[in-house]
Amino acid sequence: MLFDALDGYVARLSKSASKFGAELDSLCDAISFGLAPAFILMRMGPGWEYPSLHQFLAGVATLYMVCTLLRLARFNVESAIEGSSKVFRGLPSPGAAGCLATLAIVRGGLYQFTTFDPSLMRVLVESWATLGALALALLMVSRIPYPHATKQFLNQSLRGRRHLSHLVQLLLLGFVVVMIHEVALLITFWLYAVGLPLRYAILRSLRPQAFPTPAAPHGDDLLSR
C-alpha cells in the first residue's frame, strides 16, 4: 500500500510516467489487492472440516478477486477519459485489501485477548471475514463515492494554519492508536470501507427531493383542457 501510494508521485517527479508503467501498476494491484487478499481469506475462513462453509468461502474469495479486477479496469478506463478526480467511485481495492489484512493480523494475535474465549473469537473472525469480504466485493463495484483518504488526511492535518484544538485532536488520536494498536488498523480500515457507505445512505435518505411532486389538477382544470 505504501509503494502503491508513492509510485505515481515518484513517476511524475522523475518525469518517467508511461503507459507501460500504468499497466504494470494495474498488474501489481491485481496481485497485491486481489489475489493475495483472496488467498488470505481462504486461510482465515472455515476449512475442509466444514465442506459447505468452505465451498461458500471459496465462492466469496473468487467473487472478491473478480470484483477487484473489475474495479481496477473501470478505474483505468474512467481515469483515461475523465482524468484524476477528488473521489473514487466505489471502494478502492487497497482499502478492501486492508480490511482483510487487518483481520488476519487480529486473528494471528488472538492469544493477546485474554478476556475473551479464543475459540469464540476465532469463530467470530471467520464469520466476519467471510461475510465482510462479500460486502467489500460489492462495495468495490458500486458507485458510492469514497474520498482519497491519504490526501484528505494530509490536507486537513498538515496544510494551512490550524487552531490549537486541532493539534489536541491529533494528539488524542495518536494516543488512542498507541493504546489499542492491536485493533487500531482494523477499526480504521473497516470504518473507511463500511462507515462511509452508511453515512452516504443516511444522507441520501434525509435529503429532500430536488423537485416537489406537482399537485394533481382539479376537476375544473381537467374539463377546461
Topology:
Elements: H1 2-13, H2 19-44, H3 51-82, E1 87-89, H4 93-108, H5 118-140, E2 145-147, H6 149-158, H7 164-179, H8 181-206, H9 219-224
Notes on the structure:
With 225 residues, this protein is mostly helical. It has one domain. It is built from 9 helices and 2 strands. α4 packs antiparallel against α5. The chain is globular, with a radius of gyration of 23 Å.
Explain briefly what this protein structure is.
By secondary structure, this protein is mostly helical. It has helices at residues 2-13, 19-44, 51-82, 93-108, 118-140, 149-158, 164-179, 181-206, 219-224, and strands at residues 87-89, 145-147.
Distance between the termini: 65 Å
Spans with pLDDT under 50 lasting ≥5 residues? 210-214, 219-225
Mean pLDDT: 79
- Rg over alpha carbons: 23 Å
Overall tally of structural domains: 1
- Class from helix and strand fractions: mainly alpha
The count of β-strands is 2
- Identify the overall geometry: globular
Order of helices and strands: HHHEHHEHHHH
Oligomeric category: single chain
Strand fraction: under 5%
Strand count, sense and barrel status of the largest sheet are: 2 strands, antiparallel
What is the count of DSSP helices, taking H or I runs of 4+ residues? Answer: 9
Features:
225 residues; mainly alpha; two-stranded antiparallel sheet; globular
